Amino acid sequence: MARNAEKAMAMLSRWVRYKKNETRFRAERPSDPRECTEVWKGDKWRQDIIKDITLKVTQIQNAGLGEYRIRDLNDEVNRLIKEKEKWEAHILAIGGPDYSKTNPKVLDADGKELPTNKGYKYFGAARDLPGVRELFEQEPPAEKKKKRTVYKGVDAHYFGYLDEDDDRILELENQAEIKAREVSVSQWKIGIIDEMANEFEVQLATFS
Questions:
Q1: Which family does it belong to (predicted)?
Q2: Which residues contact 50 (CB under 8 A, 6 or more apart)?
Q3: Residues forming a β-bridge with 122
């Protein structure tokens, strides 16, 4: 019995030391990730942030917390998610793994964005807050077509730049040109005949 008690006390002592070290480590987490130069420390602080997010996402599922507490929790979750993304980018910059590719974003999967407020997500009971639920129920506004989409498919054919390469168009143009030439010749001949007739009338008047 005494031996078991000693083992239990030793385990308890190690656990207490671990919790003290963990608390001290958490307190030292810098607000700016760039102050961290070691990958293992960055990973540890990232894990701390994930624990905080998980805890708060669990808490915010309780609609009985009240509107103000739910709003505060939702703001904290969004802030922590952005902080986690900054740490992940910095960890990659100092030679660590790329969490954006290897680690799916399961933490913020429960969050939902408003079409008019990209980048801010509502979690759990926050989606049923007054004024928020109505916005989610509204139809998303129709997105304006980008200029690139509007002019998609508009090419040289649209502006007629390649018409000269179209045999059918060339044939029609030739036919129109021949017809126009014939009309011009006919009008010229009519003009000559009228002019000759006028001269003949003048001569007749002279002899009279």
A1: Belongs to the ISY1 family.
A2: 84, 107
A3: 112
| Cα–Cα distances in angstroms (integers) from residue 106 to residues 18, 57, 139, in the given order | 28, 12, 26
pLDDT at 87 over 70: yes
Same domain, 118 and 186: no
Task: Average the pLDDT over 182-196 and give the result.
Answer: 72
For residues 4 and 136, the model is more confident at 136
- How does DSSP classify residue 57? H
Decide: pTM greater than 0.85. no
- The two tokens of residue 11 are 């385990």
Q: How many domains does the chain have?
A: 2
- Do 69 and 115 lie in a common domain? yes
DSSP letter, residue 66: -
